[in-house]
Each structure stands twice: as C-alpha cells, then as structure tokens.
Amino acid sequence: MLPPRAAPSRWRRRKDHKSESHKALNLLQLLPQPHASGHGMALFRLAGRCATRVNPGFAAPSLRGRCPPSTTTSFLGAVRGMSSNPDPYKTLNVPRDASDAEIKKAYRTKAMTTHPDRNPELDPVEAQRRFAEVGNAFELLKDPSAREEFDMTGRVGGGGGGGGGQPGMDMREMMLREMMRRQMRQRPPPPPPKIFPEAEMEAYISSDVASIHRASRECKIDTDRDERRAAYAGKLGVVASVDPDDRTVKVRVMVSPGKADEVWFGAGALWDPRLLEEGLEVRVCPDEQFTHRASRAVGIDEENDGRRARCAGKLGTILALDQVDHTAKVRVIVGPRNADELWFGIAALEPVAQKQ
Q1: Is the dihedral of CA 204, 206, 350, 327 positive or negative?
Q2: Residue 197: cis peptide before it, omega within 30 degrees of 0
Q3: CATH number of 83-159, picked from 2.50.20.20, 1.10.1740.10, 1.10.287.110, 3.40.50.2000
Q4: In angstroms, what CA-CA distances link 332 with 18, 245, 259, 280, 309?
Q5: What confidence tens digit (pLDDT) does each residue in 56-75 have?
Q6: Model confidence, pTM
Q7: N or C: which end of the chain has fewer CB within 10 A?
Q8: Is beta strand 327-335 parallel, antiparallel or unpaired with respect to 315-322?
Q9: Cα distance between residue 354 and residue 188, in whole Å
Q10: pLDDT tens-digit series, residues 8-57
C-alpha cells in the first residue's frame, strides 16, 4: 500500500516554510542588535514585523536577553544610505514639512546665491554642479508625487530590491516605507495661509502717491495725514491692525533705527509681498525720481538710470528675484517689439493684479 500523499506534501510545506523563515532570520541578523533603549528595541520589533509580513508563518526572534551595547545608528545610516539622491530638503535648507510657498522662496534665494555668475571664485564645474543641485531639489519638491516618493523611500525613481541588488533589500525597503508612513501620519497638517492683510503681516505701500490718496478717499479717510502717507510710498511695513468694516489698515513703518510710525491706509494702497514670484506681471512706478531712489536704497548704481527712466509707468514681467537685497530683474515692454531687461528695487514695482 502506498503511503498517504498528504504527509510528503506537509513535509515539503514545512521545509519551504523553514527555508523562508531562515532567510528572514538571516536578514534580521544582518541588522545591528538594538540597545536597551526604547527607540532601539522599537526598531528591532519593526524589523520583526516586516519579516512576518514577508512570511506570515515566521515568528520574529525575541528581544529577551539580546541587548549588547550597540546602538541603531549604523542601521539608520544604512537605511539613509540607500538613497542615491542628495537630500533636497537639506539642499534648499527647508524643513520636511515646508509648504510649497516656503520651498519656492528658499529656491529663489538659493538659486541667486549659488548662481555661477555670483561665485566667480569657484571652479566653473563645481559652481555649475551646486547650481544644478539646487534646481534639481526644487524640481523634486514641487512635484507632489515625487516629493511623496522621496518622503516614503528616501529616493526617486525606484531601484533597489529585486534582481542583482543587495541581499535583503526588499526587507529594508519595506522597513523604510513603514517608518516613513508612521512619520507622515504624525506630521501635523500645515496651517492655512493667511489672508492679506492681517495683523503682523508684511505689506508694501504703493509707490504711486496718487493711488495712496485715492485709496484713502475710497475708505473715507480724511486728508489730515496725507503728507505722512505720501512719505511712506514704496516702503515695506508691518500691519498693526485691520478694520474690515471700512477696509482700512494701520501700517507700522520704520522711519529710523528704533523709531516707527503708524498710519491708517486704504487697503487698496497696500500689496502682499508674498505675490512676488518669477513670471508676475508688474507696473514700474511712474515717478522716475522715486524709481532712482529705490535703486540707490538697495545698492543699484546709476549706470542704467536712463534705461530705467524709459520704463516709468510701463508694464513688465519679473524674470528673477533676490529677496536678500530686495531687487528684481524685470523685462519691460518699452515700445512696439522692443523690450528691456533691468534690475529694479522692489519698492519701485507693484503687481498689476493684486489679491485682496
């Protein structure tokens, strides 16, 4: 009589099960043994759970009696080392929970400071590499799917686990994903952006004195302080308070070191500095002398003042921004099929379409 076929089948299943379990165990043994700290033991337990997920029949080894004096630093370094991309957050010097606006602002600043033309003392190849690294970091973080992939895996573009990769790469990839999922679940949602104008927000005052007075009259502000308001045309101030009923805003303006003045303006005389970005359509101040004063205030010399004077009151598009010294390069249409590109002090510019 032939033996029952079920017995060899069960034996094969047990043998296969044992083989897979040993593979998972061998992988766990590649990890540094955890220290007795809660953090280290939690990581080792996480490794065991991932091994169990690969093979549900595998029981993770006990931590009882296994606490040699090593830490999990080398393990974390190995996990980070799986990434072949520079960390875009470090490149742009922003936190991992930075908003899109914060990333864009950091990119503009970094792009200006790392531009090869601004670093002539560096080797051209190294300068170009730094500039390209900033651009690549911004391209990655502005794409929601690419950013999520980097947050989850520490890299973009796949690779790793299968084929000729290191033994256990699938396991480490799963561990990394699990850790990142936990971090993202604990990350608080970003606060909603403030609606301009609100108290303590920065605000630019219109560079056009006539616009300032017109906004005051529309909000029923009398003429008593028109002279003081005109003196602050084009300046950057801070919103002290807002009256939503008549759309008036009290703005605090620094007039000298340690001394500030507060004056009420019509909301239409103010604009939000957060609007500034490449591609924004702006109008150059129609007052040529004011434009020149704004240039001197930010360190722009008078070499191209004649060309800037031709742009007075005309429309243009921002090509580049330097938030450090408050300057912007603008392409201005000065005639039919004729445009000029010049640097201006931001105070001499005003967005054409303001967000109220």
Answers
A1: negative
A2: yes
A3: 1.10.287.110
A4: 74, 38, 36, 12, 11
A5: 554 444 444 444 444 444 44
A6: 0.47
A7: N
A8: antiparallel
A9: 31
A10: 444 444 444 444 444 444 544 544 444 444 555 555 565 555 555 545 55
